[in-house]
Amino acid sequence: MVSNFGFGALVITLVVSIYGIFAAVYGARKNSLAWVESARKAMLLTFPLISLVALSIIFLLVNGDYQVQYVYNVTSSTMPMYLKVTALWGGQAGSLIFWSWLLASFASAVTLRKWQRDREFLPWVIVVSLVTLVFFVGMSIFIENPFVRFWQTAGGSEAVAMFQPTGATPLVPFDGRGLNPLLRHPGMVIHPPMLYLGFVSFVIPFAFAIAALITGRTDDRWIRVTRRWALVAWLFLSLGLVLGSRWAYDVLGWGGYWAWDPVEIAAFMPWLSGTAFLHSVMIQEKRGLFKRWNMILIILTYSLVIFGTFLTRSGVLSSVHAFSQSAIGPLFFGYIGVTFAISLALLLQRWNALRSEGEMHSLLSREALFLLNNLLFMGILVVCFWGVLFPLISELFTGQKVTVGPPFYERSTGPLFAGLLLLMGVAPLSAWGHSTVKTLGKAMWKPFVVSLAIPILAYVLGVRHFAALLAFWLCAFVALITLYEYYRGVAARMRRSEENVFIALWNLASRNRRRYGGYIIHIGVVLMALGIIGIELFQTETQGTIPPGGQMALGDYTITFDKLDIFDTADGRNVARAVVSVERDGKYLGQLYPRRDYYYDSQQPMTIPGVRSTMEDDLYVLLVDWEPISSTGVTFKIYHNPLVNWLWFGGFVFIFGTLVASWPDKDPETVRVRSAKRKLSPSEVQSAD
Amino acid sequence: MALTESSVKPAPRNRAKFFIGGLLIIAAIVYLIFTSTQASAQYFLTVDELNQKGVDVNGREIRVSGAVVGSTIQYDAQNLKLTFEVAHVPGDNADIEAQGGLAEVLHQAVIDPTRSRIKVEYNGVMPDLLRDEAQAIMTGRMNENGVFVAQELLLKCPTKYEEAVPAQAEGG
Question: For residue A594, how many other CB atoms are within 10 A of its CB?
Fold first, then answer.
């Protein structure tokens, strides 16, 4: 009943969306406001329609209607309510609906804005949003239908179908199979929606970019309208990536947070092109350069978003994320290919109209350094792309499948990341238009000299790893310059308007939130870099089997195995939980509880580490094998991860900075006027001095 | 991609230096990718291919994929030494689909005694997903005894979550 209702709503969504596309194109062609308005209504209607579809699925999930295949696959009666609801995105069919729902809500929100100043964009924004929506809804209806049910046919066999085959009776399993235990984690409840929010939000800037190309309105209006969308998209994508790493660190039990898994890379690639885009649009706004490049970046980001959705859900690549497999691959590739080709064709048609308004003069000017930043981000993107596609390429040319692993990515992206860090330090001090080694050196030498103290201190403390010393210096340099920038801004305000420190800081940041929010993001990146240096270069590990009362040592730490408890829980798990005491240099620090959960329904064990976490380091203890408990004892694996907490802490700072930069202004128009004026003022460095 | 940057037109006398600067950076990136690929490329082989190549691959880092034969799993929990055998499965996705999907292919590989197999040795914690008819994707080297010594072990169990029709429903 509810299945039929939900499926009906899904079909109506498809019909309404297709109508909307035609109405919008016709309205734009004939210059008919009535048709465009009709298309807008169609766009708005898709939101309640898909909401009904999503609610139907949630209703089925919560009520445990196991006749529905999707419900059977992702829930079971022992799962808590919040997991049943969020199982909406626990499998592929539901994820696609969730994606469509997000897209419909964002696109509807966009069509509700005031359109006076850019009326001509509206029909094309609707077309792009609806074409994307039609693709996803069509896929849900024809290939990944979340409402198909089990039937017992007259012949006695089982069938899976949307509608009752003649003579068949409903087949209702007693219980579902339940969500994969690895996914039953609070982090997993919010990590996919965050990534999806990020993915879907990037559709909106893309829609405006295409609208600008079609209408020939190739000034930077499309960028100004969608600047906040791009930032919000980027915020969610970053949040999704950080949450995913944290989940891996907490649940997967291998002592790491990032494995250069193809699916991780698939989510990382749109982030890279999106980051490049966020930086280079500033140059278009301020100097009228990079117009074609920005178009290319947003088109690329859109394609990568679709590619990312596809990779995370298709299981084409061998990966820990491949929880689902399906035949939707060729369709996704087809869609990406067609939209990419059409977008490029539109871009070529406007190629001459997108000429730069100005010129670049100096290799050290702010805009040149932004260009370098873009090159480095694109470099990392190419590395990722090459790594993912290399098996296919090599098979094509040599007939032999050759793959590359994490060492490839670490080796080739390491110098590029280091280059980006260095740029983060240098670029804020360079002037727009013209900078020389002399002016830059004058602005930079003080923080440079002070920052040398950090690697020297590290050397004195016994760090001999050259890459680590270099990386520590880079972090110190960037942090100092960024704080110095804040200091100069605040000091200037305090002098000029006699504000106290806090008011000056507040006013400084709120007058130019993108800039100062951006600096907070840079500080966040530096802190995350500290954590990454710590775990990548200084991680140590050991493993061994010890009897109750026995001890194991790693570095300064000693753990004592106190006891092991084995018990069943109400939600269908068998838990083996060890208690270990941790000492450091003979001083007792507390107890840890590494454990292993065995899920009866899916027969899958899961290893949860016991972690003692401080800003200095993490002691990460895994319970490896608990069965031969009596005489032989228990096997533990211990990781010592120095500084890793700075990664998560930096993540918070990073997200906070993005919030500062993207928080809605009271009146966007006045901000625009101000930033337009800024273009005329001399370099920001000079004005701040 | 990055070459489109030349569309940002600097003054003619400047153009050369931007062009050279850009080229240098692109060359550096290409160099990084090229050398890193050479340093860390691994052959991805099926069990059949590995057996055919034999001595050729001794000492080279390779990746192998195969179906875990459950009855051969032996785990020495004290020394963290794990040994098992994997049976040949086709490496091509289209082949796998044609033979009824990954779950079916893995099942057939394990029950078919004529399939070629290799012995695998792994030092470390027994992974949670290692069980009969799981797909193992392993990175490591062949040793002189013809045993594949895996450094990394990745496992997939398609049967668990991708069954079309519920088995337990038959009674109800």
Answer: 26
CB contact under 8 A, A296 and B154: no
What is the reported pLDDT for A444?
82
Q: Assess contact for A270 and A305: CB atoms under 8 A.
A: yes
| Closest alpha carbon to A340 in A307, A372, A365, A369 | A307
CA distance B48 to chain A (A): 13
CB contact under 8 A, B80 and A624: yes
Separation in Å, CA A432 to CA A289, A363, A440, A592, B43 = 12, 11, 12, 54, 49
Instruction: Give the pLDDT band (50/70/90) at residue A631.
Output: very low
pLDDT-derived band of residue A302, with 50, 70 and 90 as boundaries? very high
* Bigger pLDDT: A630 vs A414: A414
At residue A516, the pLDDT reads 87
E strand map for A380-440: 401-404
pLDDT tens-place string over residues B85-135: 999 888 766 677 677 777 788 888 888 888 888 899 998 777 777 888 888
CB A474 within 8 A of CB A451: no
**DSSP type of residue A79:** S
Q: Give burial (CB, 10 Å; 0-12/13-18/19+) of A137.
A: buried
Confidence label for A422 from pLDDT (cuts 50, 70 and 90): very high
Tokens representing A519? 């600096």
Comparing CB atoms, the residue among A361, A363, A412 nearest residue B11 is A361
The phi-psi region of residue B146 (left if phi > 0; otherwise alpha if psi is between -120 and 50; otherwise beta) is left
Task: Mark the ranges of chain B whose per-residue pLDDT is less than 70.
Answer: 1-13, 54-59, 92-94, 97, 157-172
| Pick among A625, A632, A636 to test the B interface (most B CBs inside 10 A) | A625
- Burial label for A343, CB within 10 Å (0-12, 13-18, 19+), is buried
State the nearest Cα–Cα gap between B172 and chain A, in angstroms.
7
DSSP A249: I
Q: With beta carbons under 8 A apart, name residues in chain A contacting B37.
A: 386, 390, 404, 408
Nearest CA in chain A to B91: A401
> What pLDDT does B58 receive?
65
Residue A389 has pLDDT above 90, yes or no: no
Return the H-helix or E-strand segment holding A273.
helix A262-287
Measured between beta carbons, the chain A residues lying within 8 angstroms of B17 are 363
Place of tokens 């994707």: B137
Phi, psi of A119 (to 5 degrees): -55, -40
Residue contact A360–B18, C-beta within 8 A: yes
Contacts of A368 in chain B (CB under 8 A): 18
DSSP β-bridge partners for residue B142 = B148
DSSP code string of A311-364: HHHH--S--TT-----S-HHHHHHHHHHHHHHHHHHHHHTTGGG--SS----TT
CB A653 within 8 A of CB A647: no
Q: Give yes or no for a contact between A641 and A617, defined as CB atoms under 8 angstroms apart.
A: yes
- Answer positive or negative: Cα dihedral of B36, B38, B39, B44: positive
Closest CA to B37 of A260, A249, A416, A412: A412
The interface predicted TM-score of the complex, written ipTM, equals 0.75
The residue type found at B170 is E
Q: With a threshold of 0.90, does the pTM exceed it? A: no
The strand pair at A634-642 and A540-546 is best described as antiparallel
Torsion of CA A341, A347, A350, A354, to 10 degrees: -170
Q: Tell me, what DSSP letter sits at residue A401?
A: E
Among residues of chain A, what percentage have pLDDT more than 90?
33
* Residue B96: φ, ψ to 5°: -65, -45
CA pair distance A338, A347, nearest whole angstrom: 14
The helix/strand/coil state of A476 is helix
